Amino acid sequence: MATRVMKMSALYAPTLKEDPAEAELASHKLMLRAGLIRKVASGLYSYLPLAWRSIRKIEDICRDEMDAIGAQEMLAPILTPAELWEESGRIGAYGPELMRLEDRHDRTFCLGPTHEETFTDLVRNELKSYKQLPVTLYQIQDKFRDELRPRFGLMRGREFIMKDAYSFSATQESLQEVYEDMKGAYARYCERCGLKALPVAADSGEIGGDSSIEYMALADAGEASLVWCDCGFAADDEAASTTVAVSEGPGDGTLQKVSTPGLGTIEAVAEFFGFPENGTRKSLALIDGEGNPVVAIVPGDHELNEIKAAKLFGDYHLMTEEELDETGLHKGFIGPVGLPAGVRLVCDSSLQASKSWTCGANEVDYHYTGACPGRDFTVDAWEDLVTVKEGDPCPHCGAPLKGGRGIECGQVFQIGPDKYAAKMGATFADENGREQPFYMGCYGIGISRTLAAIVEQHHDDHGIVWPVSVAPYEVSVIALDKKGEAFDRAAAIAEELAAAGIEVVFDDRAERPGVKFADNDLMGFPYQLIVGKRGLANGTVELKCRATGEREDVPADDVVERLA
Ligand code: ATP
Ligand code: MG
Ligand code: MG
Ligand code: MG
Predict the structure, then answer these.
(1) Cα 62 from chain centroid (whole Å)
(2) Positive or negative, the Cα torsion across 111, 114, 117, 123?
(3) Best exposed site among 62, 348, 367, 446 by fewest CB in 10 Å?
């Protein structure tokens, strides 16, 4: 399809000669210098025409990948009524990042930082039967988070563009399938955007399942520090520094699900230890060597802790404030059961203060343990904690780990039925006509952060080096002459390219060639066609590839064919 030539003389892309003082990262500097973004206030940016063209391409790649796995695009309001956040219980838990405002009737609204509540509310009265499931809905929209430290330009804004998707399934198996599809889509999204990215298990790279994965674009500017291995193992900073550790002794380092006859049920464990809520609860807590509970997994509403708990124990119960006694310990604690040698336990870094401990949690007929009944296992000291660093042997294959930093461009979560659907009464009728809460998944991509990550990965000393797929324009035609026949020929070439459907900028400005070269390098269009009298005398123009710097004389009559 034919496109229109954009004349550089008219393009609203105010460039800066010097690096702006406020910017630290290459992406932030270059986007300001190349006239892509301008700051409105802290964490708030306008996307100027060049950035907006790239953003739209990134969005379209994202759309295409979402549509390909059967997700359906829609759009919900950015404002969300506070009542929905109360229903889910997140109004308090979300904290000051949640931007609130009141309407003229004093009703409170939140500027959506993410939309689980809105989408759960949407489907709860509409999706009625398992026969209608699964359903995945998504939107691309501005999100708002009052970040403590908005910084690095588009990297961490207070208003930013996100793709957020929500899936509703009848079973865990169905959720798992949607999740697998999403993982494929996310990997392709990163690749098509020109990003070298790693899927990193969000809590720990080591413990079996992967109920949450972050897509980390490798870049020195990233906030996360990562280790990874060619065998597929990858872990982030948090996992590497706080996930833990391992007892001395045998064991392969993986969590073991062990049949524990005689003490194999929650009921039996509860009875054994004489806990009051006999058999009624599936809890997770840590106890000391004397069997005294020392810490419960952090109470509250922290998704990651839930996921960690779920991953470790399959069956878990996240403690609420009411269930803790005045010292912060769990009243109805069930345990202890031992940890087998070699087991790794994910926990919050605050738990590292305690010395020896064992850990309890179970599911019917199994413990994730090899040492029942028991207080017979302790981790001797937190000094034994394993933090995986670059160069350490990979926990999966033993090869030396690689290390680097990453930018979180997206994240996929298996949420399950408890967190939103059950709390908000979002149910469907299963095969037996019983009402069940939806198994939910949620899946975010930072569209505007992706743009910043692309620039981090694709730039050099002269400016941005756009991958073709997301470049604001594919080609710039640079007229060396300010007027005359050669200038007219350059204009004609630009028109021919546009007619052939190639997105083209025509640098028609009355500037010296040096200025034009510098600006075109800065803006980073993948191909430059340099048109001047001297070349035209031989019937050629110069084609420069921005990424490689290679230059080639191409017959002026062949450029459309070459670039199409
Ligand atoms: P971060 O760890 O960087 O704070 P997050 O884990 O809080 O991000 P999610 O809730 O997973 O973010 O949101 C989905 C995606 O939205 C993230 O993977 C990221 O790409 C993007 N994102 C999150 N916060 C911001 C922000 N303040 N500015 C730009 N993009 C963001
Ligand atoms: Mg955040
Ligand atoms: Mg994060
Ligand atoms: Mg995240």
Answers:
(1) 13
(2) positive
(3) 348
- Amino acid letter, residue 463: G
Nearest listed ligand to the Cα of residue 409? 1
Determine the Cα–Cα distance for residues 242 and 305; give it in Å rounded to an integer. Answer: 12
Kindly give the number of the ligand 1 atom that is closest to the alpha carbon of 162.
16
User: Nearest C-alpha to atom 13 of ligand 1 is from which residue?
Assistant: 444
The residue contributing the CA closest to ligand 1 atom 23 is: 446
Which listed ligand is nearest to 215 at the C-alpha?
Answer: 1
What is the Å distance from ligand 4's center to 189 Cα? Answer: 16
Compute, in angstroms, the gap from residue 202 CA to the centroid of ligand 3: 8
Q: What is the mean pLDDT of residues 68-95?
A: 93
pLDDT reading at 451 higher than 80: yes
Q: Specify the pTM.
A: 0.78
In tens, the pLDDT along 285-313 reads 433 334 333 333 332 333 333 434 333 33
Question: Element (H or E) spanning 457, and its range?
Answer: helix 447-457
Collapse the DSSP code of 521 into the 3-class scheme (helix H, G, I; strand E, B; otherwise coil) and give the result: helix
Asked if residue 240 lies in contact with residue 402, where contact means CB atoms within 8 angstroms, the answer is: no
Sheet arrangement for strand 540-545? 6-7, 504-507, 475-479, 527-531, 540-545, 551-555
How much is the pLDDT for 9? Answer: 98
Strand order in the sheet with 99-102: 79-81, 108-111, 99-102
Of 69, 205, 39, 44, residue with least CA distance to 137: 69
User: If you measure from the C-alpha of residue 324 to the centroid of ligand 2, how many angstroms do you get, rounded to a whole number?
Assistant: 28
Which is the closest atom of ligand 1 to the Cα of 147?
27
Q: Name the residue with the closest Cα to ligand 1, atom 24.
A: 156
